[in-house]
Amino acid sequence: MKTLGIETSCDEISVSIVEDGKNILSNVVNSTAKIHSQYGGVFPELASRGAIELMIPTLEEALDLAQTKLEEIDLIAVTRGPGLIGSLLIGLNTAKTLSMSLNIPFVGVNHIEAHLYSAMMGQDIPQIFPSLGVVLSGGHTFLVKIKGVNDYEMIGQTVDDAIGEAFDKVANFLDFPYPGGPHIETLAKEGDPSKFSFQEGRVKKDPFSFSFSGLKTSVLYAIKGQKATKYSKTLIDEKEKKDIAASFQKTAFTDVVNKSLLAIEKHKLKAVYLGGGVCINQTLRSNFSSCVKDVPLFFAPKSLCSDNAAMIAGLGYHLFEKNPRSDSLDLEAMTKIPLTL
Ligand code: KG4
Ligand code: ZN
């Protein structure tokens, strides 16, 4: 069964053809990130205009690479949310049009659930449940108990910034363009992580929730001085920038690893599945590998960590297997969706 996946929740425009929920025949990811880099974050109107321009060329390229004709597609899976409304609508309406004209079913997929699924996709060994799901992206940060595919129980999430958003903002304070995560990782490699002692975020009476906004502000003050704003002048030199990046990264990752260890213990979880753009980071991977020893760890492959349509097609296939009917052409895009919808 061939599923065509479409992902346009933010600044990526991606189309993928996946066979039987796991064999990726093509996964084309185009991005408008360069356009946004001068703004320090995604400019929604420019993201949706970019999606309009890139939607059809991306679709054609994915079909070409997979050596597949539209008529050979059995199912369409598309991100229905969460994300930016303008961008979501481009993908969703493309999916509905294809579904109607080819007379094949389509399923709307929850983007953050697909990030979780990306860590399970393509695993040859049987999936292990109950397990811990960790999603670390630019829009989301949470720990979830996975009882099965599409069966989750939230353990903890961020009460303010997502971890990737904190990376993007800290990079912006250090004068690096969006997306900032890769710049922080590179800078941190040459820095001393013990030079600055930043505090991990704590949420009152909730040991599993995250808060990155206090950490972000402490980093801002370390770069630009007490009570500074992001527009204030940078007071540190190039060496200190590296130390700050390393210290910030260490604090953020220690927080995620510690809360994950606590969740594994409390909920008696048997494995850990990790996905989302921040999981590309090699230091995060090493930290998890050296601290989580008692249960197996499954990271999404790096190619599936950032936004992509293969994870949408893969999850869409499973959802359709469970409930083999098309979504209605009235299905609406949703800017916010709880994981369990
Ligand atoms: O999952 P994703 O592609 O999009 C969302 O659904 O949000 O994640 C993008 C986020 C951005 O905040 C980006 O800065 C971060 O992932 N990121 C990284 C790295 N590569 C991307 N963060 C830390 N280290 C990296 N190497
Ligand atoms: Zn994402």
Structure notes:
By secondary structure, this protein is an alpha/beta fold. The strands form 2 sheets. The chain has a 5-stranded mixed sheet, with helices on both faces. It is globular. The relative contact order is 0.19. It is built from 10 helices and 10 strands. It folds into 2 domains: about 1-115 and about 305-320, 2-Layer Sandwich (Nucleotidyltransferase, domain 5), CATH 3.30.420; about 130-300, Nucleotidyltransferase, domain 5, CATH 3.30.420. Helix 2 runs parallel beside helix 3 and helix 7 (about 215-225) runs antiparallel to helix 8 (about 240-265). The model has no long low-confidence stretch (mean pLDDT about 95). It has helices at about 35, 45-65, 85-100, 110-120, 165-175, 180-190, 215-225, 240-265, 280-290, 310-320; strands at about 1-5, 10-20, 25-30, 75-80, 105-110, 130-135, 140-150, 150-155, 270-275, 295-300. The structure holds 5'-O-[(R)-(carboxyoxy)(hydroxy)phosphoryl]adenosine and zinc ion (ZN). 5'-O-[(R)-(carboxyoxy)(hydroxy)phosphoryl]adenosine (KG4) binds near residues 167, 182, 277 and 278. The site of zinc ion (ZN) has 4 residues, from helix 4.
Spell out the blueprint of helices and strands.
Blueprint: E1 2-7, E2 12-19, E3 23-31, H1 33-37, H2 44-65, E4 75-81, H3 85-102, E5 106-110, H4 111-120, E6 131-136, E7 141-148, E8 151-157, H5 163-173, H6 181-189, H7 213-224, H8 238-267, E9 272-275, H9 282-291, E10 297-299, H10 309-322
Parallel strand pairs: 1-4, 4-5, 6-9, 9-10
Antiparallel strand pairs: 1-2, 2-3, 6-7, 7-8
The structure holds 5'-O-[(R)-(carboxyoxy)(hydroxy)phosphoryl]adenosine and zinc ion.
Residues 10, 137-139, 164-165, 167-168, 179-182, 185, 276-278, 280-281, 306-307 line the site of 5'-O-[(R)-(carboxyoxy)(hydroxy)phosphoryl]adenosine.
